Amino acid sequence: MAIGKRLKKAREGIDRTKLYPLEEAVKLVKERATSKFDETIEVALNLGVDPRHADQMVRGVVMLPNGTGRTVRVGVFARGAKADEAKAAGADVVGAEDLVEQVQAGNINFDRCIATPDMMPLVGRLGKVLGPRGMMPNPKIGTVTMDVAGAVKGAKGGSVEFRVEKAGIIQAGVGKASFGEDKLVENIKALADAVTKAKPTGAKGTYIQRVAVSSSMGPGVKVEPGTIA
User: Does residue 9 fall inside a structural domain?
Assistant: First the structure.
């Protein structure tokens, strides 16, 4: 497959077979993020799990110490005082039956979704719409909660949800190319720490097997897994 001139140039100076220390990998990726927009820096973690087994599922949420650098629109399913609390915390869309109707009609004006526990019988109807988008509220990752203010502020301030895909890979955005190298390194270590803490009981052998860092439009750089701890 032919690759474009820009990507070919970006790949210069990267040894595709080498595992780089995290700090060096971040530096290489940042130097090559030359698009006209502020590229997202992404991390891919290959885990030694088979998510088809319930006892090997890995998911959770992590608060990145330096935020994600992106604007997240937050939708909250709540009533009364909890709805007011969500609005005061900065939620973009708040509602109950009316919001369920909007989502069913295909109007999803949010990127993250939070609900109070009493709203889940209603929100449950939206599984077919929100589920495939990975937006279904879930108590395990703190998006079904009575602390809506805390959840909204977390989503706005840089909390990132992670979930292992079928192939045993977790991918997450950990900041922007405009971030300082130290801030990106801190964010990546925070993600790795959260993924390590979420290690399932069924995982055997090496847990974090391979790590790569890339920017939205740039090449991937392989990272020495021992340096992300």
Answer: no
